Amino acid sequence: xxxxxxxxxxxxxxxxxxxxxxxxxxxxxxxxxxxxxxxxxxxxxxxxxxxxxxxxxxxxxxxxxxxxxxxxxx
Length: 74
Fold this sequence. Notes:
Layout: E1 5-6, H1 8-15, H2 19-28, E2 33-34, E3 41-43, E4 51-52, E5 59-60
Antiparallel strand pairs: 1-3, 2-3, 4-5
Helix pairs in contact: 1-2
């Protein structure tokens, strides 16, 4: 199945995290960066989706993508 590519802003909304977190995950190798410069996109299939409770509105964040073997967090 081909990747579903989105901008960093869309990825941030989908995950419930800041855009900077999406950029950091990509620089750490947790997620794949497609393209370069202003045309960079990220695959929704690699991102943890946030969930929102329809009654309380409480947002629950998914676990961050794992670091690649031997990598260190920024």
